[in-house]
Design brief:
By secondary structure, the chain is of the alpha/beta class. It folds into 3 domains: 319 residues, TIM Barrel; 199 residues, Glycoside hydrolase family 3 C-terminal domain (Rossmann fold, 3-Layer(aba) Sandwich), CATH 3.40.50.1700; 116 residues, Immunoglobulin-like. It is built from 21 helices and 23 strands. Helix 1 packs across helix 12 and helix 15 crosses helix 19. The longest helix has 24 residues.
């Protein structure tokens, strides 16, 4: 069913409703209207990295790890897996009359906010700090979720519109100030792409205000959606409309808040404020036609999903697809492609035929929480890093293990008399091992969404870029033992390992790699597959936080690779492999409405690997260009040892434009392109030994 037919049916249905009935459908837990044959429907469901919060489902790496794959084809396939399992679970639940929360087909994913500040706890939910990467990966996930037919396989949601990235403890009252340039250069492009190109079915407003207006009732933001031709529905973040009067103090009461939101174009309320819509209509603050129009938009989505009694091709998807082998293989592939090798002095890959005893140490070595991140589902089978090595080396080598320390407390056992009560065991394991895998990092209790977990810091944002002190002590002491050691970092954001990172032989950023992600970590470290992930965020030195603007400052100066003037710890776009790939040659040719880049990449190493060709652009001489070259295109490529690959990338002329202070896209300056396996910066060259190929248009 196409949108035109769905809207026609929706209008005919809503015309039969009383105003009270229509208003009742604008709250996320929409009740049944039995006299019209309308079933109950709960709009709230999650699929950030697989179907979440409603029983068993295949769990992919956290969103930041999906972004690290730089693989749009794979991410679209992951979206398809999520919607297939979502359909299977919906079909099964609805047959049993279960229409509760997290059982529907409207997924409030993906989160395409820009990971602007490395302290933001919810940054793990995003696709990183770059607008191009975020837009491409986000659009791919939406295409996978929504399917290719006229009917929706599932409804995706672009959130949180639009200038939203912390601090978490201020989000209900905060006013984010962003210039026209920053809006159109950084904060809006991914939303625009998902609306115009991926045809995302819904957009969710953020909790905060942007430039003085609450995001769920912003004339400015709603104006952008209209300009882009958005045809879906707009939903508030949960209880965000209540914030209008409780925390933002821009209205006096719930009636005025409800009126303000729906009059601005917010169709669906995740919360309870729209219970006051009838009162708002009776008070003359909202027209009845406005309520009915929002109801029509919402029922248009429901008809396009085929869940109003007419059925769809997706009704036959059986429950048995949930967690099937094919789906788990995709999750495994994402974990393999998303882990980023940050350092390797030659220790890796470990030779599993020579290792007799491997020590696996650390608070996240056998932690399920460190696999899943936040907004996660439930798996019937978890493979931690420790379990991954035990299974990989079964019958070949002994795997010794030790907790080493608590995740953030000085004692692992509250009854212990002394701090670091698991350290001696860790040192003993290291002393008796040929090599050590030291698994440290965070989980959703240390970074995440405000109020989502019992965060020990009282907020879900990080205070700094360091690991908790007990983990720093553990790393220092284990490294003193002197055994070959690889640090595996499970976290959703930039971490500065400081001296431990310098002393370790290798460092692998595994993010939150998914329910069975420990298998991928073991396979990568043992060399069964070459690492090939790239950083979707800049890893800064911790002291560089002092040089950044305040966390509440939404200007980009000093933040993200595009506006960072100093040398980072590890640059955006960086990631080592077991091969040695570089771009040897690149040529550009003009075609109608754009350009074609023909690229030759070669693997100079002795191991097969995948890598990511990255294209950056700078407008030399332009006052409006970002400080550093910006990513405009990328493509994952397989490179056998000693061989070359030919890559073709099409570039739209719009990619070469810059944004001026008025928020306008303009053509100016001398266009210079850089093509390589990372940024064209000195730090990437220092870490990889390769420079990008430079082209001038």
């Amino acid at each position: 069913m196409n949108r035109e037919e769905a809207r026609k049916r929706a209008k005919a249905l809503v015309d039969q409703m009383t105003m009270e009935e229509a208003a009742s459908q604008l709250i996320y837990g929409a009740p049944a209207i039995e006299r019209l044959g309308v079933p109950a429907y709960n709009w709230w469901n999650e699929a950030l990295h697989g179907v979440a919060r409603a029983g068993m489902a295949t769990m992919f790496p956290q969103a930041i790890g999906m972004a690290a794959t730089f693989d749009t084809t794979l991410v679209e396939e992951l979206g398809d897996v999520a919607s297939t399992e979502g359909r299977a679970k919906y079909n099964a639940a609805s047959r049993h009359g279960d229409r509760d929360i997290y059982k529907g087909l409207t997924f409030w994913s993906p989160n395409i906010n820009i990971f602007r500040d490395p302290r933001w706890g919810r940054g793990q939910e995003t696709f990183g700090e770059d607008p191009t990467l975020t837009g491409e990966i986000g659009a791919a996930y939406v295409r996978g979720l929504q399917g290719k037919g006229e009917m929706l396989k599932a409804g995706a949601c672009a959130k949180h519109f639009a200038v939203h990235s912390g601090p978490e403890d201020l989000r209900h009252e905060f006013n984010a100030l962003a210039s026209k340039k920053d809006m159109n250069e950084t904060y809006l492009p991914a939303f625009k792409k998902l609306v115009k190109e991926a045809k995302v079915e819904s957009v969710m407003g953020a909790y905060n205000r942007t430039n003085g207006e609450p995001c769920c009732a912003s004339k400015e933001l709603m104006g952008y959606l209209k300009e882009w031709g958005f045809e879906g529905h707009f939903v508030s973040d949960c209880w965000a409309i209540q914030d209008f009067h409780q925390y933002h103090h821009i209205t006096d009461n719930p009636v005025d808040s409800a009126a303000m939101a729906i009059n601005a174009g917010c169709d669906l309320n995740c919360g309870c404020t729209y219970e006051k819509l009838v009162a708002a209509v009776l008070a003359g603050k909202v027209k009845e036609e406005t309520v009915r129009e929002s109801a029509v938009r919402l029922f248009t989505t429901r008809y396009m999903l085929g869940i109003m009694g007419e059925g769809s091709e997706y009704d036959a998807i059986p429950y048995t697809v949930v967690e099937c082998e094919a789906h788990q293989k995709k999750a495994d592939q994402a974990a393999l492609e998303g882990c980023v090798l940050l350092k390797n002095d030659g220790m890796l890959p470990l030779d599993e035929n020579k290792i007799k005893t491997l020590g696996v140490i650390g608070p996240n070595a056998d932690s399920i929480a460190s696999l899943v991140g936040n907004y996660h589902g439930t798996s019937s089978h978890y493979i931690t890093v420790q379990r991954g090595f035990q299974e990989a080396l079964a019958g070949k080598a002994r795997v010794l293990s030790a907790l080493g320390c608590h995740l953030y407390k000085d004692k692992a056992d509250n009854l212990s008399q002394f701090n670091d009560d698991r350290l001696s065991e860790a040192l003993t394991v290291a002393e008796n091992s040929d090599a050590v895998v030291l698994v440290v990092g965070l989980d959703e209790t240390l970074e995440g969404e405000q109020g989502d977990t019992g965060n020990p810091y009282g907020s879900a944002d990080k205070r700094d870029l360091l690991l908790p002190a007990c983990q720093r002590r553990l790393m220092d002491e284990v490294l003193k033992v002197g055994k070959p050691t690889v640090i595996v970092l499970t976290a959703g954001s930039a971490i500065d390992l400081q001296g431990a990172g310098e002393k370790a032989n290798a460092v692998l950023a595994a993010w939150y790699p998914g329910a069975q992600g420990g298998k991928a970590v073991a396979d990568l470290i043992l060399g069964r597959v070459s690492p090939s992930g790239k950083l979707p965020v800049t890893f800064y030195y911790n002291e560089q936080l002092d040089e950044m603007p305040d966390f509440t400052d939404y200007s980009l100066k000093g933040r993200t690779y595009r506006y960072f003037a100093n040398k980072p710890l590890y640059p955006f776009g960086f990631g080592l492999t077991y091969g040695d790939a570089a771009v040897e040659k690149a040529e550009v040719s003009k075609e109608e409405n754009g350009y074609i880049l023909d690229i030759v990449a070669r693997n100079l190493g002795q191991r097969d690997t995948q890598d990511v060709v990255q294209v950056y652009c700078q407008n030399e001489g332009s006052e409006n260009a970002p400080l550093n070259p910006r990513l405009i295109a990328f493509k994952r490529v397989f490179l056998p040892a000693g061989q070359e690959a030919h890559v073709s990338i099409r570039l739209d002329a719009e990619a070469f434009m810059v944004v001026n202070e008025a928020g306008e896209h303009v053509s100016e300056g001398k266009i210079v392109l850089y093509v390589g396996m990372g940024q064209p910066d000195e730090r990437t060259k220092e870490l990889t030994g390769h420079a990008s190929v430079k082209l001038e248009l």
